[in-house]
Amino acid sequence: MTRAVTAPRPSALQTRASLAEYRPTWSQAIARVTRHEDYGAGHRWLDLEVSSGMTVPVAGQFVQLLLVAPSPVLLPRPMSIADAKLTRGRLTLSFLYAPVGTGTQSLAALGPGDAIELLGPLGRGYPLEESGTPVLIAGGRGVAPLLFAADALAAQSRPCVFLFGARTRELLVGLDDAKRRLSKSGSELHLATDDGSRGTRGNVLLLLERLRRTHPGPLVIHSCGPHRMLEAVARWALTHGRRAHLAMESVMACGTGVCRGCPMPRSEESRRRFDRERGTSPSLYGNQEYAMCCTEGPVFAAADLDWDRVE
Ligand SMILES: Cc1cc2nc3c(=O)[nH]c(=O)nc-3n(C[C@H](O)[C@H](O)[C@H](O)COP(=O)(O)OP(=O)(O)OC[C@H]3O[C@@H](n4cnc5c(N)ncnc54)[C@H](O)[C@@H]3O)c2cc1C
Ligand code: FES
């Protein structure tokens, strides 16, 4: 049975706390599947209604999904939140995913009314409140948290520039959804495919380079996609003096900073800041060499990671 959630709807745009100020506010909850359907090119869209007072997430955060026993996998699976709606006191979280292995294939078998356990919202999301033109860059199914970000910006009537790249036109999964959300705020959408079957032939870096010429003002990049694409976006941003925030996916276990299973290599700058800021209990935040993706990420500023060591 679904109970009303107590969490108030926060501002659609979030404040990014510094490391010293940041405190996690996640909880564990049982959710019910309310919608689960094909979403094109082997992907699925999943809506879960959450049954307890979970904090309403912001774009870029994720949850850990744990299949209710008997489950073929022991550990939960992390999933970006593609949408969050609080309607008449009920929180619905949406996910866009590909069934790639045992965990996600088992998830794909759930039907309406089935129960699933979740932990969240976890991690730190995109700092959408930063001034400058927001540029959302999606690679393939990395589009999931950026659909949420596009809606959050539209709710603030803030137009953005959305760059969407994939290998082929079929893999521009969620394109119609992106168009619908962007139309609410008069935002721009630019597409690129490796094979040229839709939009510009090439990758999102070409679109970004073009944007630099047409939008001379400050650009703030928010991106999610394969790590190699994120690395290219980060290096571009660092070269051109633009701010960029990249949602990283690493293998995770606990999702809460305890197991040390999701290290991301810090840059020199991040190491120095970590030393300055860490409080009396640094355990959630990794160490000088490595940040934990689940607690300091999954969204990292380009300058905070050592891209020579990111895998
Ligand atoms: C913060 C975060 C957010 C994420 N958000 C999403 C999301 O929104 N949508 C989504 O589909 N996935 C997302 N993922 C990835 C998702 O958690 C993994 O796909 C999932 O853990 C795989 O679990 P599995 O049990 O199905 O596969 P496993 O049994 O763990 O792996 C089986 C095989 O699949 C391969 N595999 C694992 N992950 C991927 C992958 N992402 N792509 C291709 N092959 C893979 C493995 O290398 C292995 O060969 C996210 C991960 C993180 C860390
Ligand atoms: S997954 Fe356990 S510390 Fe990040």
UniProtKB/TrEMBL annotation:
<dbReference type="GO" id="GO:0016491">
    <property type="term" value="F:oxidoreductase activity"/>
</dbReference>
<dbReference type="InterPro" id="IPR050353">
    <property type="entry name" value="PyrK_electron_transfer"/>
</dbReference>
<feature type="binding site">
    <location>
        <position position="259"/>
    </location>
    <ligand>
        <name>[2Fe-2S] cluster</name>
    </ligand>
</feature>
<keyword id="KW-0285">Flavoprotein</keyword>
<dbReference type="Pfam" id="PF00175">
    <property type="entry name" value="NAD_binding_1"/>
</dbReference>
<feature type="domain" description="FAD-binding FR-type">
    <location>
        <begin position="26"/>
        <end position="128"/>
    </location>
</feature>
<dbReference type="GO" id="GO:0006221">
    <property type="term" value="P:pyrimidine nucleotide biosynthetic process"/>
</dbReference>
<dbReference type="InterPro" id="IPR039261">
    <property type="entry name" value="FNR_nucleotide-bd"/>
</dbReference>
<feature type="binding site">
    <location>
        <begin position="77"/>
        <end position="80"/>
    </location>
    <ligand>
        <name>FAD</name>
    </ligand>
</feature>
<feature type="binding site">
    <location>
        <position position="294"/>
    </location>
    <ligand>
        <name>[2Fe-2S] cluster</name>
    </ligand>
</feature>
<keyword id="KW-0274">FAD</keyword>
<feature type="binding site">
    <location>
        <position position="262"/>
    </location>
    <ligand>
        <name>[2Fe-2S] cluster</name>
    </ligand>
</feature>
<keyword id="KW-0001">2Fe-2S</keyword>
<dbReference type="InterPro" id="IPR001433">
    <property type="entry name" value="OxRdtase_FAD/NAD-bd"/>
</dbReference>
<keyword id="KW-0479">Metal-binding</keyword>
<dbReference type="GO" id="GO:0051537">
    <property type="term" value="F:2 iron, 2 sulfur cluster binding"/>
</dbReference>
<dbReference type="InterPro" id="IPR012165">
    <property type="entry name" value="Cyt_c3_hydrogenase_gsu"/>
</dbReference>
<comment type="similarity">
    <text>Belongs to the PyrK family.</text>
</comment>
<feature type="binding site">
    <location>
        <position position="254"/>
    </location>
    <ligand>
        <name>[2Fe-2S] cluster</name>
    </ligand>
</feature>
<keyword id="KW-0813">Transport</keyword>
<feature type="binding site">
    <location>
        <begin position="103"/>
        <end position="104"/>
    </location>
    <ligand>
        <name>FAD</name>
    </ligand>
</feature>
<keyword id="KW-0411">Iron-sulfur</keyword>
<dbReference type="GO" id="GO:0050660">
    <property type="term" value="F:flavin adenine dinucleotide binding"/>
</dbReference>
<dbReference type="InterPro" id="IPR037117">
    <property type="entry name" value="Dihydroorotate_DH_ele_sf"/>
</dbReference>
<protein>
    <recommendedName>
        <fullName>FAD-binding FR-type domain-containing protein</fullName>
    </recommendedName>
</protein>
<keyword id="KW-0249">Electron transport</keyword>
<keyword id="KW-0408">Iron</keyword>
<dbReference type="GO" id="GO:0046872">
    <property type="term" value="F:metal ion binding"/>
</dbReference>
<dbReference type="InterPro" id="IPR017938">
    <property type="entry name" value="Riboflavin_synthase-like_b-brl"/>
</dbReference>
<dbReference type="InterPro" id="IPR017927">
    <property type="entry name" value="FAD-bd_FR_type"/>
</dbReference>
